[in-house]
Amino acid sequence: MRLDLKEVRYEAPLTQYLFTKASRGKIPLSGTFELSPVCNFSCRMCYVRMTPAQVAAHSRPAMTLERWLSLAEQARAAGMLYLLLTGGEPFLWPDFWPLYERLTEMGFILSINTNGSLIDEAAVARLRARPPTRLNITLYGAGDDTYRALCRADGVFTRVDRAITRLREAGLQVKLNCSLTPHNAADLAAMVRYAQQRDLILEVNTYMFPPMRRDPDQVGQNERFTPEEAARYHMERYRLMYGEETYVNYLESVLRGIADPLGLDESCVDPMDGHVRCRAGKAAFWVTWDGWLTPCGMMTEPRVDLAGQSFDRAWQTLTEKSAQLRLSGVCGQCPDRDLCHSCAAMAQAETGSPGGIPLYLCRMVEAMKTLARQELDRRGR
Fold it and tell me: Bridge-partner residues for 179, per DSSP?
């Protein structure tokens, strides 16, 4: 099976309309609740992971079940319809099920990000009783050895595979995400086959954000590809996933200066024209496990403390701060901007400032153009 590109980045026209209206009116239509930074994996490129001991010693207390529920009620009253639960690993959070069940009663369009390794038969039964819109499972490899190398966890691919099978048999919607790094790149073709054999969407990202939230000294650093390697794998995934004809069309689009974003989530992109339509701080928000309201989970600033104030007030402050963000004028005038699609979060992670020039992405785009020319020349195009 070959997946059509539109299948990966499709949004219903009604959803597009709602987000357009929400962005204009500064309505918080979409939220992400980061329940905990604790995870049973220790992925080398993770931007947030902490141990239970680190959480306990942290200067700010973790959000409680009661605070999350109060926040959900307030955000719903303000206009939140779409809600993503993430972590860390959300299924590790002790109060996940009481929170999840109450959130489903509130009527949200609810999705869950998970590594999938903790979804057993009992979890599938509870999910089937109250189905989420979708479970986004990160696929880190095609075997236990790769998971051990990247995630530093033993025997987990088998558990993830079993969870995916159970979820599919229960009729639950599953999407696969893949963060591609030097530690799992050799499994790319096998992961594509895995998704195709199960008729699942697989979204592969080869750009890894520097983990500034975990370590502020990691500006522009991560256990990731060189820009040139990231470009090569970014393009190789097209050939593997969509076949020769679509791949050639993609190569030609790269040389025309138009391509899909290098490291952004599908929700950042207008599926009709491929342009970035960042909703962060306009119609979307992220709440960290320790109670900061931010535009995007990849950003350290701006942020607003939710403690001691209503969601409405905090959201107003965040929209005002977000409106002041400015990208580099160099990026705004760059002829490759429709290849790069650099955003404030990328610039901040790569340079320490939303207005910085993310040279990693510049190099990645140059490598993409060079590779596209070489690939088309080899095909006599």
Answer: 205
Q: How many C-alpha atoms does 365 have within 13 Å on its Cβ side?
A: 25
What are the residues facing 293 on neighbouring strands? Answer: 287, 304
**Structure tokens belonging to residue 222:** 């991560």
Angle at 296 between CA 212 and CA 209, to 5 degrees: 40
239-249 pLDDT per residue, tens: 999 999 989 99
**pLDDT tens readout for residues 152-197:** 999 999 999 999 999 999 999 999 999 999 999 999 999 999 999 9
Give the global pTM: 0.90
**340-357 per-residue burial string, b: 16 or more CB within 10 A, e: under 16:** bbbbbbbbbbbbeebbbb
Q: Which domain holds residue 284?
A: 5-206+263-324
Residue 62 DSSP code: P
Whole-angstrom Cα distance, residue 362 to residue 174?
34
Give CA–CA dist 39/52, Å, rounded. Answer: 9
CATH no. for residue 54? 3.20.20.70
Q: Of 363, 347, 325, 338, nearest to 230 (Cα)? A: 363
Number of domains in the chain: 1
